[in-house]
């Protein structure tokens, strides 16, 4: 994701190197869930189609619990929408991680001839400001036994839970691991369990299982992933452990030993027990695609970046290198890609001298420092949520005896959904998120606090709305005018006085154009929305520069979605919003 | 399109040869409009994404006429939706024909290593049943001066208005050409005409222009196509004629001479006159991408296929080879591709011996004969519509003096819209379209006659509806379960008694499964929709074979779209529909 974005932001193969110790994209296993916000981002990159067309779309989450009726053993308690936040893609997509990697790699090859350099391992990395202080990052890499030393301005470690980058720079994951052991299996199943095509949380008297329906495979059959809580006492003692997942393996004595003893047959037997009275088996031979056993742990690095002696951020870590957690909320791949999505444009601005400070090279750039502020805060929320979710989910509970009830679990799922969907993420105040309004909150043109439903809020992503374009009547998604090109956008919600050339609305728009013209060409675009003006009008009735600068980004904001209502803006007041290159709002005014 | 479909239906490079006299996909000009039904078909092939993402979407059609106010000269009379028929894609997409060719060629290369053999010309074709009567079609082709003779079971000529195939087989285009001369230009324009981003028909005192907004090009600017009615008296006499379009060039003395005299400057000057008082120019140098001058003619071949002495259809013509007309209704590329879409699956069934008759090889196959019946009828409608539309459009009219008023023109556009969108096409009764119900119309389970709005009708395509899948709650488009795989589909709209195992609904479903199991494997699939049954139910409460055969094609038909209402089916009655491999309905019951 980082390599793709930097290549698209214009870094050539001469300036950019992306290495991978693996020899190819992943063949099986590991992550499989794409959250709604990640799909929105993929759409801004033009790479969402294959997922929209071929992934499994999880629309619903079914909750099964121990039944009061002893013959039934388990019963369905409720079915909820999988995604509760309003989102352009109101489902979670599941598809094999290797395909996601291939989709991104194919797109990368449009921008970079070299693309990913595989079979290449990072041996070590250090900062050395002697020699060339502009290129102080020294990395030693090895391809098929041949070592090379690379000097660079910056380096990003997306090298997983055992990150060499993190270890070399003296950072460490801090936190605790829980003793729960889980097994995960990808397979085609033969079952009469009625909700096998829905995401399910099943809590039976025998334990817990999570079901993740997956994409259709080449045989025409459908994959299913199950996560199974493996009970403490493993009866069979076979030593074969499954392929390690990227999730953390904490080597604490007891649990490690127990994990090593888990076999595929243990996991399947436990699943059979939980699914009773329904039958549950792999369908025929060779239908188990992948399996693994892992422990749940939540750990976080206190720092996501390391600075040189001038205070300039030079080495960054993203993804599992800075936070590890359980896979069951479907967050790992998503949060990790969003780390890179947050950092990439900031790096591009810094490298190209486009931020106010980076135009003086050799000075610390506070733009880069927002990466740590924004993504550490996000990772902390993730860790906190995952700890709660895993604890509740691993606990054996039924409604009669458990300390945590079915209702509590559903409640936790619901409140976490804004965060897990990626649609409710909110960054704290910083250089790039101005939550305080100049002159005080009474000048805030936005009414309402239901930010998840779309009310404009600095630090959150701009919700998609459907708008009708003035120039041609095209019914468009506003997010399609916010592609991931690295540009900022001024979103102007004009007020009802727009047709009066002396109005605040018209004069403000002209001021906006004055200001944006002062920025380097093509770094700022305008999107302009108008409310119901109660009379027909043509281009001549509004400020002429609207057509000059924003002819194809000038929208009727009420015929389709009521953008003013959704965004919480009074049409008699209007509002201005600064949208960052990653679709998050910097400020409103 | 024909090559792509046959390759996807399983014909290997050993059995299939697709030649093109051109050396590459088209570089500029010619067709540019993709109608809603064509997009639906592209979606069933998984090749609609690039068009959805990057084409211009025409949502609205603006009608401009001479104004009563002499200062205004012209004024906008009305803005209509471009597509009035309900369609999955409610717009016409415009994008350069070369990109459409490239999209299909890229997809073809997934199925055929050889793909399109270019720089290869058909010299002649004939039927010769001596020798090998199974391969009676003899074609001589030439690649870079090297000639080869090919024997085949069948040949399809998609070789344009001057079709060698048509001429060699003694077929001819019949009909008349009109004397109107039109110029067409693709360019980036500089204009203050307010509707330049909408499709427009402009009738000014100086003549007529049609505006077709086009896709954004690499410079970030937007192409515009204009069709200009060139007045009879060409003032300048430059001899340079534009590149020929595929549209017919009828060599009738006067008009031909006049057409040859048309220059780009003539066309632009005429456009300037029509657009007055608005200014209208190419934007800077080198922004004219392509231009041509053509005459309008409507001609049709009475036969679309030629048979051997056994009565077996062996040689077919599709597209401009069998019908030519004006380009302004945006039909040429669409109708031509739909000719192939109609014929390809029939050829595949015949070649594979899958139709009842073709399993006896050497006998005429009435399945193949339906191509002529269905597509000739469609072409005749096209010709009739185009003649009216062109006459009206070429006529200089204003509301005071014209014999055809603005209202008439809009009315013609509206009534033609079902046909031009491709969504209202209806084939006549034939082997594949059974309009009469066994036992008489009183047994017809479908109520209503507004077929364009979705009422089930043999001979029309099945309208897309949104349905919620029982197995997983996925909110899907029914057309996504009708991919272009060559399969037939039984669409069963179950009735409200489904939960009673002895009901007509349950026993009928079981009979459907009995019958479909008798067909070769994978040639027939079932889609099953249920109405509101007024109580929760699970898989055990309905016929077991629904889950066995149609687990992932079993839908709630009322929570999202009301499928019963849209399709005109009484939920207390239910209905069965046979859907052909091309998405058209054969019969209902």
UniProtKB/TrEMBL annotation, chains A, B:
Q: Name one Pfam family in it.
A: FAD_binding_3
One GO molecular-function entry: oxidoreductase activity, acting on paired donors, with incorporation or reduction of molecular oxygen, NAD(P)H as one donor, and incorporation of one atom of oxygen
Q: Where are the transmembrane segments?
A: none
* Swiss-Prot/TrEMBL keywords: FAD, Flavoprotein, Oxidoreductase
Asked if the record carries the keyword Metal-binding, the reply is no
Q: Which residues form a coiled coil?
A: none
Query: Which residues does the UniProt record annotate as the domain FAD-binding?
Result: 1-385
Entry-linked Gene3D superfamilies: 3.40.30.20, D-Amino Acid Oxidase, subunit A, domain 2, FAD/NAD(P)-binding domain
Asked if the keyword DNA-binding belongs to this entry, the reply reads no
Q: Where is the Phenol hydroxylase-like C-terminal dimerisation domain?
A: 425-584
Top-rank taxon, per record: Eukaryota
**InterPro entries the UniProt entry points to:** FAD-bd, FAD/NAD-bd_sf, Phe_hydrox_C_dim_dom, PHOX_C_sf, RIFMO-like, Thioredoxin-like_sf
What family is it from?
A: Belongs to the PheA/TfdB FAD monooxygenase family.
From the Swiss-Prot or TrEMBL record, give the protein name: FAD-binding domain-containing protein
Which organism's genome codes for this protein? Talaromyces rugulosus (Penicillium rugulosum)
